[in-house]
What we know:
Shape: globular
Largest sheet: 5 strands, parallel
Strand order of the largest sheet: 2-3-1-4-5
CATH architecture: 3-Layer(aba) Sandwich
Number of helices: 12
Number of strands: 5
CATH class: Alpha Beta
Structural class: alpha/beta
Order of helices and strands: EHEHHHEEHHHEHHHHH
Mean pLDDT: 97
Number of domains: 1
Amino acid sequence: MTRRIAMWSGPRNISTTMMRSFENRSDTAVTDEPFYAHYLTVTGLDHPMRDEVLTAQPTDWRVVAEALTTEAPAPVWFQKHMTQHMMDEIDLGFMSEMQHFFLIRDPRLMAASFAKKMNKVTAEDLGLARELALFRMAEKLTGTTPAVIDAQDVLRNPEAMLRALCDNLDLEFDPGMLNWPAGPRDSDGVWAPHWYDAVHSSTGFGDPVTDIPSLTGDALSAALASMTPYKELYKLRLTA
């Protein structure tokens, strides 16, 4: 029986690092942002490598949801999901088939990082309001309260936080989750050349950010608009 573990995160978090960590387990397969092509199709957004994404993935959310709940690639299947990809027309009933945890990060850090890759930043891009809604939906559908972990806590003490997360998910902690070989993986989304440069050079978790960046314009507006849902989730975060 395959354990399906869905991680929900906004962009420019440590979501791909967490994917690397889980993929380095001996019992786990990973899937990278499976709803991305559907999101680009519906929104029409001109993201980097848009054509490659639309070619590489199904554009119909129903096909994606069916695969995520029926295929069984390994004893543990880690699914990395971006909260902003979950458009209103998607029936979230498939979430009842999974365990969930939610990865959050200070939206000021997210906005500053996102602005380095994209010309404009919106609160919808950061996805924290959607993340809070998905948290509540996961709680309703599964009858359990999912774990929430903050990126800064993970970076300060990766082993302790991963042990706490694994305990919450009823998984045995695997020391392999702490380190991995540098470089790209076949499991990376086709968009990796634009977004994953830092992860491709990593062999483990990096250091926490010590300074809050100074923001202006749309990045500042997006961060401020995202602060309330972030704080709601932060109050619920798992600690080691």
